[in-house]
Amino acid sequence: MLYIGKEHVTDNLSPHNPPAARCRSGETVVFQTRDCYDDRLHADGTVDHPELALENPATGPLYIEEAAPDDVLKVKIEKIDLNPTGLMRASTSAGAFCDLVEYRKVRQFDLTGGWVEFTDRLRFPVDTMIGVIGTAPRTDTVMTHTPGAHGGNMDCNKIVAGSTLYLPVNVPGALLSMGDLHALMGDGEVMICGLETGGEVTVTVEVIKGFPMPTPALACRGSFYSIQSANTLDQASRLASRAMLQFLQQTTPMDVYDCAMLLSLKGDLSVCQIVDPQLTVRMGIQQSILDAYGVTLP
Ligand code: CA
Ligand code: CA
């Protein structure tokens, strides 16, 4: 199986990044990823060579031979294997609580048992997600800490093993990269970190041609989501809702009024994150709504 080691790392998603590896549509590939601290943060708070640290680094990019601009790249998340430990660090400069934070407290958690032992009274099952995953934008170079129409740092806690992500193909080969694994993260990522760790992500990539997918889009646990990022949550909410509205118009016989009423009744609008340079929101519907119209996701 094709394996892309974490030495193939970047802090940006760009049409100019040379491929770390090439594959065919339908192949399964493993990405080994660094944590968001570039694997340099220790449990005692020290950082190895901070001057060299990449912020939210991603492994890649992977060039998929059949991918051409305006196709959709289907990324099936097969499996995520985590490092044995993960870290969190309080931020004094960003996030919802930075005015309350006086120092950069660091906590390390053991991940080997499948549970996060938060306190002696609180433990939570690990629910691993991918924070940064995206293709190259068409012309721009976008830093990996910024989400956008190409994906990137969406920090959507539904991007988990078993889910399928649909990303736009903007350049030949798509140039897929990923990193920033979280063993656990709440909606919002309000203190600007999840339970940050590295690991190995196994994905199957497939090029989809001629299907009107509202990218970035995600199928996860019986729901289908459009994911959008913008300067404000208001803008992102509107973009995500409209992307889903347009998808329903394109794939069902319902008109704009019925699609809008349907989303007003059954849409599941949720915040992914409020802490990155663009803010991210998802609009979800139950897949049973698509099933009722015989809409099968590719
Ligand atoms: Ca992130
Ligand atoms: Ca992170």
Architecture overview:
- The protein has helices at about 235-250, 255-265, 285-290, and strands at about 1-5, 10, 10-15, 20-25, 30-35, 60-65, 70-80, 85-90, 105-110, 115, 125, 130-135, 140-145, 145-150, 150, 165-170, 175-180, 195, 200-210, 215-220, 225-230, 270-275, 280-285.
- The chain is mainly beta and about 300 residues long.
- It folds into 2 domains: about 1-210, Jelly Rolls (Sandwich), CATH 2.60.120; about 215-290, Acetamidase/Formamidase-like domains (Endonuclease I-creI, Roll).
- The strands form 5 sheets. It has a 9-stranded mixed β-sheet with strand order 1-5-19-7-16-20-21-23-22. Strands 2, 4, 6, 12, 14, 15, 17 and 18 form an 8-stranded mixed β-sheet that branches. Strands 3-13 form a two-stranded antiparallel sheet.
- The chain is globular and about 60 Å long.
- The relative contact order is 0.19.
- The mean pLDDT is about 100.
- The protein binds calcium ion (CA) (2 copies).
- One calcium ion binds next to strand 17.
